[in-house]
Amino acid sequence: MLDGTTRHFVDRMMTLSAVALAICLPLAPDLVPLLMVVLAFSAIWPVKGRRERHPLRPDSPLLWMFLLYLLHLAGLLWTTNMDFAGLDLGIKAPLLVFPLMHIFGRPVQDRESVQRWFIGANVLAVALCLLHAVVSVVGIVFGNGAHHNLAMSGFALSVPFFSSDFSLFLHPTYMAMYLTLALLMLLRPGVNKPWGPRWARVAGMLLLLGVVLCASKAGWLLLFVAGLGLLAERWSDRSTRRMVAWGLVLALVSGVALYLGTDFVHERVGQVVRTLQESGPDQQASNSTDDRRLVWRAAAGVVAAHPWSGVGTGDVKDELLKVYAERGYAEPLRKKLNAHDQYLNTGVALGIGGMLLLLLMVVVPTAFAARKRQVLLISFLLLNALNWLVESMLEVQAGVVFFAFFAWLLTPDESRTSPPSRTSTTWTP
Questions:
Q1: Least confident window among 47-61, 75-89, 414-428
Q2: Could you give the CA distance from residue 159 to residue 337 in angstroms, rounded to a whole number?
């Protein structure tokens, strides 16, 4: 048990580590595992008078996360590649850690403050990416060599502002997802209340610009879906309605201007148009759209061959690469791609049962949240669920920690009440 001084230290460490984790997710991914350990340690550390256990409930994604991880452990029984299985279980460890933190630990005292720091970190990430892009363009214009010779065409000048060249800290699809959640948080009254309208508008415009420049096709689509959903939900709020409507118009105008004025965006959009016109993907294509269509076909074939058990926790990549080789999918084989769809990737590993559990992890909490009008939680769950259609996000740290951390942070805990601590502190970036 802890005396008052030690309890103050542990509570403060928990809040600081939650804030630090929210900051490092978009800015310093290498520090995330360490901060997650510190957060778990401080959350579970025994505090006087708090020995009760807190059950996992079906209206929370935490229960389904826990069950999904247990199913991956069971998948060790019929896997052969134990090295990859161990790596996979390590990456997915947050699906176990955060439910255990809920059962044995305490919630963060000020969730809105953690959200504000996450918003601020994403705004800073966009600003740093823009600064890096400008410096890169200056180097191209005043430098020598091939890049300098291409500068007059405009292509080399546009590349630093888009996609992987723009997104310094994360894969652009993940950065776009983070920025979209930050935008959704920014528009919640309880989160933006300490800020003035001018700061909120500036932050919102930078976040919006960041999503556009990430050049993630899924990010562009989900940005508009999120905007339309916010318009429907906050239509009676004139100020929010105007801000969201103008933001959507600005994003649309920016997108059209970039399509007409830059070779890079024109090519990205052209990939989608050509895909819609084709009857099937080109097996020798090297663009991300056709690559996805090929790996989806391969993954669906593996699921069909192993519908009930899957191939096991550790054999997913091996089985997919085998199918790529058999079918002559050159680029997916060279790049060693996973299924690029979390539902299919889970199905390959664990069969239809794993896919169903993954769906329940989103559908059941969303249904409960809809009844209770928990809009931010609904938005968060749907943002992840839709992104999982084009990326295997629970196979990498940037996706699994993001989902597990914010599922733990945003899910209201109605099984207990946490009285305000006299030592709790609110920080506002």
A1: 414-428
A2: 24
Which of the four pLDDT bands, split at 50, 70 and 90, describes residue 415? very low
Tokens of 154: 């405009």
CA-nearest of 66, 73, 72 to 94 is 66
Q: Cα–Cα distance between 22 and 152 in angstroms, integer? A: 41
Rounded Cα distance between 232 and 195, Å, is 24
Q: CA of 332: how far to CAs of 163, 329, 338, in Å?
A: 20, 6, 8
pLDDT at 426: 45
163: left (phi over 0), alpha (psi -120 to 50) or beta: left
Cα–Cα distance between 53 and 105 in angstroms, integer? 8
- Whole-number pLDDT of residue 10: 76
DSSP run (H or E) holding 86: helix 82-91
Q: How many Å apart are CA 191 and CA 182, to the nearest integer?
A: 10
Q: Across 76-199, where does the E strand assignment appear?
A: none
Phi/psi at 373 (5° precision):
55, 40
- Quote the longest CA-to-CA distance of the chain: 70
